[in-house]
Amino acid sequence: MADAGTRQPIGVIGAGYVGLVTAAGFAELGSEVWCVDIDAERIARLRAGEVPIHEPGLAELLARNRARLHFSTDVTGALEHASLLFVAVGTPSTYSGDADLSAVHAVVAAIPPASDRALVMKSTVPCGTGAALQRSFREQGKEALGYVSCPEFLREGSAVEDFLHPDRVVVGADYGWAGDAVVDLYAPLGAPIVRTDVASAEMVKLASNAFLATKISFINEIANVCEETGADVVEVARGMGLDERIGPKFLHAGIGYGGSCFPKDVNALKQLAGNSGYHFQLLTAVIEVNELQKRRVIAKLHKHLGELPGKRVALFGLAFKPHTDDMREASSLVLAARLNADGARVTAYDPVAEGQARQLVSGISFAPSALEAADGADAVVLVTEWPEFLELDWREVTQAMAGSLVVDGRNALDPAAVQAAGLVYEGIGRAPRATPDERIRGEASEAAR
Ligand code: NAD
Ligand code: UGA
Q1: Half-sphere exposure of 250 (CA within 13 A, CB side)
Q2: Contact between 98 and 91 (Cβ < 8 Å)
Q3: Ligand found nearest the CA of 75
Q4: Which of 354, 331, 326, 256 shows the shortest CA–CA distance to 18?
Q5: Site to substitute for ligand 1 among 55, 163, 261, most atoms within 8 A of C-beta
Q6: Which residue in 357, 401, 404, 402 sits closest to 383, CA to CA?
Q7: Which ligand places an atom closest to the C-alpha of 18?
Q8: Residues with beta carbon inside 6 Å of ligand 1?
Q9: In what order do the strands lie in the sheet with 69-72?
C-alpha cells in the first residue's frame, strides 16, 4: 500500500473513455496504476502501446507514464497493490430506460472484502445505487469494504484537459477513511472539492447532465421559434449568454445532443423519478425536443430539394461531436436512417469516426475526404463541426457539387463565405441574411429612393 511521501497506488476497473483517462491522469500525478478490463483485445493493444480510442492528448499521456501503468484482464494485481479501486465500467440504458448496472455488479462480485480497500464509483449510476451496494456488501459479509461516489464530469474530445483541470471534484462518502484518500489523490489539481454524502454526489452527476441537456433543448426550441419569426438564434444566444446568470456555454443550437451519456443519463433520471412515483415533466420534454431536432434537417432538405428519392446528400461528419470517434447515439445515425428511408443516396465523410460508423450505419457510402463526399451532391449537411470543415474552401465545394444547398446542422459555418461561393446557406434557427451582392443592390435602391 501507499508509502508515506509517495502517491497512492490505485486500481482502475474499466479501460474505456473514463477509465483510460483516469488511469493516465493519476499516473501523470505520480500514482502507480493497475488498470483492468474484461476486453482481452483492448488490454493487449494497450500493453503493446496502442490507444484504442481517439481522444486528444491521451496517447501522449499514456506514453509518458507507461512505466507506472499496468494493464491486465485480471483484477489480482489491482487488489494486491491498491486500496482505492476506481470503477469506470459502462452503465448503458436498459429497454425500460433505467441504467443497466450489471457491469457494476460484476465488479463488486469480484472484489473480496478488506478493511483497507474501497470502491470509488466513477461510473454514472442512479441515485441510491451506492446505498444499495453498501447494503449488499453487508449481506455478502463484505462490510469492511469502503465506498465513495466520485462522479466523472469529463467530456469526450477534451477528456485529458478536463481531468487535469476540472471545474470541481465531487467526493461523496458516508463513513470511513476512503473519502479523505480520494480527496488527497485529487488535491494536486487544485480544483474545488465538494465533500458530500453518497446519494447527493450521485445526484450532482445526474442533475448536471440533465441540466446541460435541458439548456441544449431549450436553445434548440428557441432556434425553431427564430425560424418562424425572423430572429437569428446565434445572435439571441450571444445576447443571452452575456448575462452572467445564464452564461454562454451550451447555448449552441443544432441537430440535437448525442453521445454515450446525455441521452442515457437524462432518460435514467426521468426513469429514476418515475420509479419513485414522480413524473419529471421537464425531462420528458427535453428528450422529445431532442428527438424531433434530429429530424428537422430532413424538412429543410425537403423544402429546398422537394422529394428525396434519388437525391444525393453528403454528410460532413458523423461522430456525435468533434475530436472523438465515438458514434454512440450520434445524431448522424438518425439522420442517415431517415435519409435512407426517404430514398436519398448518402455519402459521408468523418475524419476519424468512419470505422465505428461502418459498424452502426448501413446503406450509405463513405468518402475519404469532404470534397469527395460532396462530389455530385445535391446538398451538403454539416453534422459534426470538425475544424477541417470550418476551414474548407467553399468555392471548391461548389465546383464538386451538382446542387447548391448547404445545411449547417451546427451553426458552425460562416454563412457569408458559403453564400459568396454561390451556395444556398440554411442553418438552424438562423435568419436568412442577404448576400453581399443583394445588400449592395438593396443599398443602391434605397439610395435611389
Ligand atoms: P466505455 O464503454 O468506453 O468503457 C467501459 C469499459 O468497461 C469497457 O472497455 C468494458 O470492456 C469494460 N468493462 C465492462 N465490464 C467490466 C468488468 N466487469 N470488469 C472490467 N472491465 C469491464 O464507457 P465510458 O464511456 O468510459 O463510460 C464509463 C462510465 O462513465 C459510464 O457509466 C458513463 O456514463 C460514465 N461517464 C462517461 C463519460 C464519457 O465521456 N464517456 C463521462 C463521464 C461519465
Ligand atoms: C457530457 C458532459 O458535458 C460531461 O460533463 C459529462 O461528463 C459527459 O457528458 C458524460 O457524463 O458522459 P460529452 O457527451 O462528452 O460530455 O460531450 P458534450 O460536449 O457535453 O456534448 C454532448 C452533445 O451535446 C454533443 O452531441 C454536442 O454536439 C451537443 N451540444 C453541446 C449541443 O448540441 N449544443 C451545445 O451547446 C453543447
Answers
A1: 16
A2: no
A3: 1
A4: 326
A5: 261
A6: 357
A7: 1
A8: 13-19, 36-39, 42, 88-91, 103, 106-107, 122-124, 152, 154, 156, 260-261
A9: 69-72, 33-36, 10-13, 84-87, 118-121, 146-149, 169-172, 193-196
**Which residues sit opposite 400 in a β-bridge?**
none
C-alpha 86 to ligand 1 mean position (Å): 11
Tens of pLDDT, residue by residue over 416-448, are 999 999 999 999 999 765 444 555 555 555 555
Whether the CB of 81 sits within 6 Å of ligand 2: no
| Residues near 235 by beta carbon (within 8 Å), at least 6 away in sequence | none
Q: pLDDT at residue 344 above 70?
A: yes
Q: What is the pLDDT of residues 252-271, one digit of tens each?
A: 999 999 999 999 999 999 99
Residue 1 scores a pLDDT above 50 = no
Q: State the Cα–Cα distance between residues 49 and 179, nearest whole angstrom.
A: 33
Written as one letter, the residue type at 328 is R
Residue 17 Cβ < 6 Å to ligand 2: no
- Rounded distance, CA 51 to CA 59, Å? 6
Identity (one letter) of the amino acid at 158? S
Q: Is 255 in the pocket of ligand 2 (CB under 6 A)?
A: no
Give tens-digit pLDDT for 49-67.
Answer: 999 999 999 999 999 999 9
For residue 437, what pLDDT is reported?
55
Neighbouring CB atoms inside 10 A of 7's CB total 18
Q: What is the Å distance from ligand 1's center to 23 Cα?
A: 13
Atom of ligand 2 nearest to the CA of 265: 11
CA–CA distance, 297 with 293 (Å, rounded to integer): 8
Residues composing the chain = 449
Place of cell 483497507: 116
Nearest partner of 410 among 281, 254, 201, judged by Cα: 254
Nearest to 317 by CA among 264, 356, 261, 345: 356
Cα dihedral 382/386/387/389 (nearest 10)? -30
pTM for the predicted model, two decimal places: 0.94
